[in-house]
Amino acid sequence: MSKSSAIRQLGPQLSLVTGISKDDDVLVIGLTSAEEDGAPSLVIGEGLFDDATASAIDDALAAVGAKGSAGELTKLPAPAGLGVTSVLAVGLGSPDKLDDAEHVRRQAGVAARSLQGVATAVTSLPAADLAAAAEGFFLGAYRFDEFRSTPPEKAPLAAVGLIVPAVDKTTQAELDRAKAIARAVSIARDFVNTPPSHLFPEEFADRAKALGSAAGLKVEILDESALDKAGYGGIIGVGKGSSRPPRLVRLSHSAGKKAKTVALVGKGITFDTGGISIKPAAGMENMTSDMGGAAAVIATAILAADLDVGVNVIATVPMAENMPSSTAQRPGDVLTQYGGKTVEVINTDAEGRLILADAIVRACEDEPDYLIDTATLTGAQMVALGTRTPGVMGTDDFRDRVASISQAEGESGWPMPFPEELRPDLDSRVADLANVTNHRWGGMLSAGIYLREFVAKDVQWVHIDIAGPAFNTGGPWGYTGKGGTGVPVRTIFAVLEDIAAEG
């Protein structure tokens, strides 16, 4: 990752066009599947082809057996005179799926991932949904090659022309918004994909400051001395095993005194060994993603400034590296969280909740109307919900509101309960709380219950566990490649906009 994602090209150049130009290499069209005994149908909008060209493409697709099923890719030589070298048809599935923005976004991403080595593409997919097509192409083409000694043989897709009936203020505003959202998701991906050798708390804070300041956010950074003096016992406790000390970053966007205030908190463990309660070696390299919540919160705050969202946003982002050493906290130690509650550290690998608790208490001092925290918090999230479905917990009404918005945005958040019988299991023998229960049942839920202890009573609060969804260790799908996904940037930003509109 460059020193600042503000100067790295995160995706292809996106522009509005009204047709195909001589500089375009590939035309990407949509193809819906047949209804009953009919043939698949082209999704190309009005006036892109004459009848002869449309018929030639239909015949060629039929000859190779294209069905239009979702994600199916069919590449054809372009008919003479079309102006491009080839045509790529991407299957959109059933025609009724054209009303589903996330579905269109994913198929645009499938197309973009297949176009490595192509300089310029032009697409008719905006005929289905302009914003979804733009976001899907940008995110599907995203690549992270910053640490390769030689450029990959196939360069990422460089530019995409999005075909619309007319280029006007409305369509340009829709594209600009889509580009800002896709860029923010890519900023979060870049943070997550940067290896811990190059992204440690001080560097993470510096990059957040550079990006935040460039977007017009007010930025404050607390170093280890300031954290210790102010009593941030959770952040100091987790970070004291590392030679690279912790930080707390605060980023603020102002929408005016009459606007609602939303606090954002994100877990920023730049690498998690588990500390003295060390993790197994297998798969530990994936703990480069343990700052996925912080990455998403920073990126969302930047997006809030870029699109001037109508709520006050204050992001409080704790950053630490969890390492075993002679100075690391031990199982059995007691620390004092910011605000005064004492915690017996039973397991040093349950460190995320310790730094989040400090940040939540600090965030509540700003008297927000709403508080959203997100974290790669528990392996139990993946046990309960899999690798693509975030767990959403918190105050009932806000929890359900956020989960509903997350599902509408295609990030699939699912509401989860707080069983009250789990709370006594966090009682400690020697302190106010223990940081884990003495069993493995409902681990995601008990982590959320722990965080609830630090939320001010009059604040509407939600906690989003993204342990699996923040980092894709499997094969690419839709607009999501391997590595950082950028979840839940789109969910949180959509919630900010919903609060701005509805209160």
Q: Sheet with the most strands?
A: 9 strands, mixed
**Quaternary structure state of the chains depicted:** single chain
Compute the CA-based radius of gyration. 24 Å
Let me know the average pLDDT: 96
Spans of 5+ residues with little confidence (pLDDT < 50)? 1-6
Shape: elongated
Question: Into which percentage range does the β-strand content fall?
Answer: 15-25%
Helix content: 25-40%
Give the N-to-C terminal Cα separation.
Answer: 37 Å
Number of continuous helical runs: 13
Structural class: alpha/beta
The count of DSSP E runs of length 2 or more, i.e. the number of strands, is 21
Please specify the SSE layout and strand pairing.
Elements: E1 13-17, E2 26-32, E3 41-43, H1 51-63, E4 73-77, E5 86-93, H2 101-113, E6 120-123, H3 130-141, E7 159-163, H4 169-193, H5 201-215, E8 218-222, H6 224-230, H7 233-239, E9 247-253, E10 261-266, E11 268-272, H8 292-306, E12 312-322, E13 334-336, E14 342-344, H9 352-364, E15 370-375, H10 379-385, E16 391-394, H11 396-409, E17 414-415, E18 433-434, H12 443-452, E19 460-465, E20 471-472, E21 483-484, H13 489-502
Parallel strand pairs: 1-7, 2-5, 2-6, 6-7, 10-12, 10-15, 11-12, 14-18, 15-19, 16-17
Antiparallel strand pairs: 2-3, 4-5, 8-9, 9-12, 13-14, 16-19, 20-21
Helix pairs in contact: 2-3, 3-4, 4-8, 5-8, 7-9, 8-13, 9-12, 11-13
